[in-house]
Amino acid sequence: MKTQTINSWGPRSASYWLTAAVVAGIIFLGARFILAPEVGAEGFGIPLVHTREALAYGWIKGIRDIFSGIVVLIFLLIRNPRATAFTFCAAIIIPVSDCLTVLAVNGPQDLTHLLIHGITAMYMAVTAIFLFKAKSN
Q1: Residue ranges per domain, the chain?
Q2: Could you list the residue ranges that cross the membrane (predicted)?
């Protein structure tokens, strides 16, 4: 009798939890931008001026962050590493763009925020490699 091996990607996989950490983080950051846009902007690296228009941009960024997290979360929940990997790869453009935006606005002296966005992009790239190597159900 042949035993069937269970080889499904999911909560027992490191790449699953590496991805889940990013999902939780981006949803948290999005919620922070909606609930406290000025605090979110400080954390991003580009402070907001306290105007209605500036706060609106914070809310706009917040809902986009939450949407990004939910998209990846859906692929995590259905345990599809391939779709998660492709989505995660596409999403790398976000921290890269954030890093370039901070560089353009604050210059190279804002090393802390440049590293936050840059390391996030690298983390996502490494995690995407693990996701592509994961076997689906």
Answers
A1: 14-133
A2: 16-35, 55-78, 85-105, 111-132
